[in-house]
């Protein structure tokens, strides 16, 4: 999508796909499946076992395989979790700015999204979260994004404990989208390691660039196991079997590749900081500790609420507009750092040219 959506002269640094060669063990798993004609329906718990082993090593937390279910992808998994733990029209609390489909999926279900904007430091503002819980009412759901797309904020154990406490006080169930978890430089704390009544969605799709190979896992803790047990069996028909093979290989044998990727992303964060200082010093950027997305505050450029329009029109560089990310998105753009230093440099140079021409 990243390289196909716009005309050829547009440099794409928008959608969350990475410009990386596939991890070799992942490529091999796909090649082996094709060679064998192993392209049928999924079966078994290999993906869940691979995630459990990865989580144990990486985060010191071992989710129980019997409390995991395969789902088609993270967002469809989120929708299924909503169905399990809330009434069909229960509102959904989200922390804006956030991944736009959080609003789109909620609205397409005929539900209301209730915003709890992050603070100016891009962290959860507990006053705004509690107010949103009160507005949403008992029986609502809270869709937590950890790490947060687009800011890269990695929520701390203390923050997650406060989330758990407030959600119990206000009768709100927590669904945690943890798709970006492997892409963290800080210590990542899985929500279920602090609150065993939550539900989590994880996948190898972001960290190993496998969005086209659909698969994800829904995870319950001891306190939510009975909820997940009610997941209709037919939901497990949705994920791709080849996707599951690829995700399993990534979590099992793709860790060296992931570590190299994380190093490269750190270098790109530093490069972006330097490039902005040189070419667009009025843009504010605080490198996040998770994800490969950079959330750029362009309000100092005087380009209005949607600077991505100027960058695209005049600079032929495609970034995500901040507007669909909800409150806090006006005047911002989201840039994808998971590319080569050359493309990153060219992208900032194009943005600067576009700005100078206004
Ligand atoms: C926070 C978040 N959740 C979900 C997704 C999409 O995941 P999936 O394709 O598995 O639905 C993305 C993709 O960028 C994302 O950033």
TrEMBL record:
InterPro entries: Aminotransferase_I/II_large, Class-II_PLP-Dep_Aminotrans, PyrdxlP-dep_Trfase, PyrdxlP-dep_Trfase_major, PyrdxlP-dep_Trfase_small
Enzyme class: lyase
Domain Aminotransferase class I/classII large: 81-350
EC number(s) stated in the UniProt entry for this protein: 4.4.1.13
Keyword Chaperone among record annotations: no
Family affiliation: Belongs to the class-II pyridoxal-phosphate-dependent aminotransferase family. MalY/PatB cystathionine beta-lyase subfamily.
Protein name: cysteine-S-conjugate beta-lyase
Organism of derivation: Lentzea pudingi
């Amino acid at each position: 999508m990243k390289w196909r959506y716009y005309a050829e002269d547009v440099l794409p640094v928008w959608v969350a796909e990475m410009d990386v060669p596939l991890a070799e063990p992942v490529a091999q798993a796909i090649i082996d499946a094709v060679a064998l004609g192993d392209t049928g329906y999924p079966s078994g718990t290999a993906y869940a076992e691979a995630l459990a082993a990865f989580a144990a090593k990486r985060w010191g937390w071992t989710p129980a395989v019997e409390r995991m279910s395969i789902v088609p992808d993270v967002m469809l998994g989120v929708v299924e979790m909503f169905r399990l733990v809330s009434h069909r029209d229960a509102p959904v609390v989200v922390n804006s700015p956030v991944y736009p489909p959080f609003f789109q999926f909620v609205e397409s279900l005929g539900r209301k999204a209730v915003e709890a904007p992050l603070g100016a430091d891009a962290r959860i503002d507990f006053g705004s979260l509690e107010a949103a819980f009160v507005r949403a009412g008992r029986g609502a759901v809270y869709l937590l994004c950890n790490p947060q797309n687009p800011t890269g904020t990695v929520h701390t154990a203390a923050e997650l404990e406060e989330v758990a406490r407030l959600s119990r006080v206000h009768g709100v169930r927590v669904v945690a989208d943890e798709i970006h978890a492997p892409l963290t430089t800080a210590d990542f704390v899985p929500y279920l390691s602090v609150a065993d009544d939550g539900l989590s969605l994880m996948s190898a799709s972001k960290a190993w660039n496998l969005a086209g190979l659909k698969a994800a896992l829904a995870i319950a803790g001891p306190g939510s196991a009975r909820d997940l047990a009610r997941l209709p069996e037919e939901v497990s028909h949705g994920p791709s079997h080849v996707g599951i093979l690829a995700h399993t290989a990534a979590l099992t044998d793709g860790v060296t590749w992931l570590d190299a990727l994380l190093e490269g992303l750190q270098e790109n964060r530093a490069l972006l900081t330097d490039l902005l200082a040189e070419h667009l010093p009025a843009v504010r950027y605080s490198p996040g500790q998770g994800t490969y997305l950079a959330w750029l505050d362009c309000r100092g450029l005087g380009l209005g609420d949607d600077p991505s329009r100027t960058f695209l029109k005049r600079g032929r560089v495609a970034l995500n507009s901040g507007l669909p990310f909800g409150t806090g998105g006006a005047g911002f753009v989201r840039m994808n750092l998971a590319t080569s230093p050359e493309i990153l440099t060219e992208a900032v140079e194009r943005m600067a040219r576009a700005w100078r021409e206004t």
